[in-house]
Design a protein that fits this description.
Blueprint: H1 3-25, H2 30-34, H3 36-47, H4 49-53, E1 58-65, E2 70-76, H5 78-101, H6 109-128, H7 132-150, H8 157-188, H9 193-198, H10 200-203, H11 209-223, H12 232-235, H13 241-247, H14 255-262, H15 264-267, H16 271-292, H17 298-320, H18 323-326, H19 330-367, H20 383-397, H21 403-418, H22 426-429, H23 432-456, H24 474-492, H25 495-509, H26 532-551, H27 567-589, H28 594-615, H29 631-646, H30 653-673, H31 677-698, H32 711-735, H33 745-756, H34 761-769, H35 771-793, E3 794-795, E4 799-800, H36 803-807, H37 818-841, H38 849-867, H39 869-875, H40 880-897, E5 910-915, E6 919-924, H41 926-949
Antiparallel strand pairs: 1-2, 3-4, 5-6
Length: 952
């Protein structure tokens, strides 16, 4: 496993450690434990700058599903390095800031940092992944983790609303992007981004090319809050300020920017790409800048300013794509300057916007409000915060000598050059581009001045503040001061970034514009003389100052554009329509009757599978392939049919359980007859535990009464039952005859011992050949057990009950049967011993983790029946939900461990070793996975048994 892989996985690993050990940390703030992670990552990526600057790219591959072309391939070039530095660098400052912002005595800070680390790892995965499927997985993980962070204060309605809105919109875009990825794969036959870029010449004319482009842009626009998908970002400001400073200024909202930049080599040069990206960016830029000046909440103002700045960067990437139209030459480099400006402003925006979010967090933390109508006069009380605010806001406004001034001047250069374009119909509409850019920049200047001077100057209003304001503690000041210092340093010395970061990123975005030994030459200067761009800036300052003076007086500048119709109302109305429509549709078939639900499932089953048997020509029934029926099999069938036929006629629930169990045990007999001991053991124990569960559940139900059912309903039920039986029988008969390909069983028989080191083919299939299936199955079982636990534990009248409240006077009492208690003492020991024998011998003999776990659970059930639940808790003092979690973790970590040996996920190894006392012994990593299965099965079974059996 490479260091790049470790860099991506490190936040996830530390998140798991924090989740499991936060109680052991004690008085130490969890943030101090987390802080080394982004700091070390930032130092690591800083150390890679000379390598990337020299023209090299780093790549490492971990095979995951190589047969499908899905591997965990990480790729570091100039573009991904910039984002990795932003993710880890800003992340380090945000974690430090949050240590002083989040009170560990009042907040669940361990949960906060787990979510933050999940997001950090997901973002690193997005920008470093070369495989489209892996990139998509990390992409959606950013949506999930950001949902958790935005809803961190989940007791607030607006937090939950904002979190849900952000997830719905970004996940919608993610699904569209996923569809675009599938189309790219259909055109190229590869999921590798680099291979797609290399093959772009052969797919540009494909009919799926433009649909793929539009779908991928939908993903980018929703993630980067481009108009009209911008509505989620202002509501996401309900998150704690450190989250806003990290996600909504430097990382998550830049993921869409990254996606557009990464796929520019594929789609740039297309007129549709140029106009869609440029117009969407410019529309977002001017719309959000106008909305920003109307906000009275500081974070809302910053939210719309972020949307506006993202639109600026997006428009630059669109304008820069014109460079691919020429391919090479002077005009190519001319339009590539727009891309240079986009990269530079991407970094500048992360710096000054991160500082401003932290400033707003300090103001809110120290005054108790973010309302501009209550603030003012804080300059003398918070001089350091004011200084940082001035630097950040002036940089955002594009004033010298700060870094924002340089990238804004480069933006003006790009839009002026775009107005001179004579292709793609730009000669007609191109003149509007610099006009829109200039007007938007005026409003940018205006909201920047509002942010600073409305907050820190003017009349001090202590009577409107919840707290007595004072300067923030040093720990909260260090991160924004560092960012403000960088805004000055990169403003005065911009070429610190030119050769080290911007030039390699340009090479990554426009690889087709360079020869084998060529490189981009980027040189940024503060002064270029009295150019058009300078006069545009002077005009912005003059008009912006006038508008600032009029801001408090002109009503049009302080009221909404429209009150009746807004994008938020459209979203809310659309959601209500979907909810009502879903409720109406669902109410037509969700009647509350279990009989109806089972009927729907069985009718669908008959229609689809039965229809398939009738319509598919290749399915046949070759009776010569069927084996003759033996006497013992006939007896077993008779023993199975009798209880099944008798079941509908019984009058008590107890008899129904007995007959159901009898049918199950007869199935066990079939497995014995067919020489399948593993399945026989499993079926027997499952049936035993299932009967126990039925008994526990039916104890709470009223006495069984005979229903008066209409004859038509009985006939309907009979037809459906007969139909299901007939379809299953026909499928079984068809599967046993007329095979058009060789059975995979031959492969398992040949490779079971040679490839997996196991003689028990069933167990080898479960833990090795189909280990991924088993992992997902025990995960589903774990989720089901937690669902049952929650349903039992919750009390609709009083909320969630505590352990003692729920289990006071538990149902399963101590048995008074002396014989049962005496025999159980011996039997339990024998069963547990046998379960461990089954577990240890399962790789070569009948057994394994699943059956071993069921046997152990059966022993614990017997212990509970004989001696009561309290005695079981004393003898086995484990929380079985944690046992389930431990089993899942062991199974998952066993699969991940194969990456350390450059093997696909869940690859196993085995070998023979001479051990003391044991001699030559086989050791297989599959046993570790099987241990995870064993623990998960015990945890799941006992969680369910305890939840139902101990409920009063």
């Amino acid at each position: 496993m490479s260091l790049l892989h470790i860099a991506v996985l490190a936040p996830f690993i530390v998140a798991l450690v924090v989740m499991l050990t936060y109680k052991l940390i004690g008085r130490v703030h969890t943030g101090w434990v987390v802080l080394p992670v982004p700091v070390v990552l930032f130092a690591y990526f800083l150390g890679l700058i000379p390598t990337i600057q020299g023209g090299e790219q780093l790549q490492a591959v971990l095979e995951w599903i190589p047969s499908a072309g899905i591997n965990f391939t990480v790729y570091l070039d100039g573009l991904s390095l910039i984002f990795a530095l932003l993710i880890s660098g800003i992340g380090s400052l945000v974690v430090l800031y949050s240590i002083f912002y989040m009170d560990k005595n009042k907040e669940a800070v361990h949960r906060f940092y787990v979510y933050l680390l999940l997001f950090m790892g997901a973002m690193l995965g997005v920008v470093l992944s070369d495989n489209l499927m892996v990139l998509y997985g990390f992409w959606e993980l950013t949506s999930i983790s950001s949902f958790l962070l935005i809803a961190f204060w989940h007791h607030r309605d607006r937090s939950r609303y904002g979190a849900l809105k952000s997830m719905l919109i970004t996940v919608f875009g993610g699904l569209a992007m996923f569809a675009g990825f599938i189309l790219l794969y259909a055109m190229t036959g590869t999921f590798s981004v680099r291979e797609i870029v290399a093959d772009v010449g052969s797919i540009a004319g494909d009919a799926m090319f433009i649909p793929a482009m539009i779908l991928i842009l939908l993903g980018a626009f929703t993630k980067s809050a481009q108009f009209p998908f911008h509505i989620w970002l202002p509501d996401a400001m309900e998150a704690p300020t450190p989250v806003s400073a990290y996600l909504h200024s430097a990382t998550m909202v830049k993921a869409g920017i990254y996606l557009v930049a990464r796929f520019s080599p594929v789609f740039a040069g297309q007129a549709s790409w140029f106009w869609i990206v440029a117009i969407t960016g410019l529309t977002t830029l001017i719309y959000a800048s106008i909305r920003a000046i109307k906000q009275t909440d500081l974070k809302a103002l910053l939210a719309f300013s972020t949307i506006s700045q993202l639109g600026l960067i997006m428009s630059l990437l669109g304008l820069g794509s014109a460079a691919a139209y020429y391919g090479d030459g002077v005009d190519t480099l001319l339009y590539a300057k727009a891309t240079t400006a986009a990269i530079f402003h991407l970094m500048n925006h992360a710096i000054f916007k991160g500082a401003l979010f932290m400033v707003v967090g300090i103001v809110d933390h120290e005054t108790g409000t973010r309302d501009l109508r209550k603030l003012g006069g804080l300059m003398s009380l918070m001089p350091i915060t004011f200084t940082v605010a001035v630097i950040g806001a002036f940089s955002m406004a594009g004033l010298p000598p700060f870094n924002g001034f340089l990238s804004k001047e480069m933006f003006f250069t790009a839009v002026l050059q775009a107005s001179d374009m004579n292709f793609w119909n730009a000669e007609t509409w191109g003149i509007l581009i610099p006009v829109v850019a200039w007007i938007a920049s005026v409003f940018t200047f205006l909201y920047s001045m509002i942010l600073v001077f409305k907050t820190f100057t003017g009349r001090f209003q202590p009577e409107k503040l919840e707290k007595k304001p004072h300067e923030a503690p040093l720990g909260m000041l260090i991160p924004p001061v560092i960012l403000a210092s960088l805004a000055i340093v990169f403003g005065l010395f911009p070429n610190l970034l030119s050769q080290t970061l911007i030039e390699p990123a340009m090479a990554a975005i426009h690889p087709g514009l360079l020869g084998a030994e060529d490189r981009f030459h980027v040189h940024i200067e503060m002064w270029h003389g009295w150019t058009t761009e300078i006069f545009m800036t002077i005009g912005i300052i003059v008009l912006g100052t006038v508008l600032y003076k009029l801001h408090g007086r002109a009503r049009i500048m302080n009221t909404s554009l429209t009150k009746r119709w807004t994008w938020n109302k459209l979203y809310d109305g659309g959601l209500r329509v979907l909810e009502r429509g879903g409720e109406t549709l669902t109410s037509t078939y969700m009647t509350g009757s279990l009989r109806h639900y089972v009927m729907y499932i069985f009718v669908f089953f008959i229609a689809v599978l039965g229809g398939g048997l009738l319509l598919v020509d290749n399915i046949g029934f070759d009776r010569t392939a069927y084996a003759p029926m033996s006497f013992y099999e006939a007896v077993a069938i008779l023993g199975l049919v009798i209880p099944v036929i008798a079941l509908p006629f019984v009058r008590t629930r107890l008899m129904a359980i007995i007959l159901t169990g009898a049918a199950g045990y007869m199935v066990t007999l079939f497995f014995v007859l067919f020489r399948a001991p593993d399945l026989a053991l499993t079926q027997m124990v499952v049936e035993t535990v299932s009967v126990m569960l039925f008994l526990l559940c039916f104890y709470h139900l009223p006495k069984l009464k005979r229903e008066k059912v209409p004859m038509s309903l009985k006939w309907r039920n009979l037809l459906i039952s007969a139909g299901v039986g007939a379809v299953v029988t026909l499928i079984a008969l068809a599967a046993s005859s007329g095979r058009t390909f060789d059975s995979i069983a031959d492969y398992f028989i040949q490779e079971s011992y040679r490839s997996a080191g196991g003689k028990n083919i069933v167990n080898v299939i479960l833990v090795d050949f189909r280990g991924f299936d088993t992992l997902l199955e025990i995960t589903v079982l774990g989720i089901a057990s937690l669902g049952i636990y929650a349903l039992i534990k919750i009390d609709l009248g009083e909320g969630i009950l505590g352990e003692r409240d729920r289990y006071e006077g538990a149902y399963l009492p101590n048995s008074n049967d002396v014989i049962l208690r005496t025999v159980s003492k011996v039997v339990i020991f024998i069963v547990v011993t046998f379960s461990w024998f089954l577990f240890n011998s399962g790789h070569h003999e009948p057994g394994g983790g699943f059956i071993g776990g069921l046997m152990t659970s059966a022993a614990l059930v017997l212990l509970s029946m004989a001696f009561g639940m309290d005695m079981t808790r004393k003898i086995v003092p484990f929380e079985f939900r944690k046992v389930t979690a431990a089993g899942l973790a062991i199974a998952l970590l066993t699969g991940i461990g194969s990456f350390a040996f450059n093997a696909p996920f869940l690859s196993h190894s085995f070998g023979y070793f001479n051990l003391p006392l044991l001699g030559k012994t086989e050791l297989a990593t599959a046993v570790l996975f099987d241990l995870g299965v064993y623990l998960a099965v015990v945890g799941v079974t006992m969680t369910i048994i305890n939840s139902i059996g101990r409920d009063n």
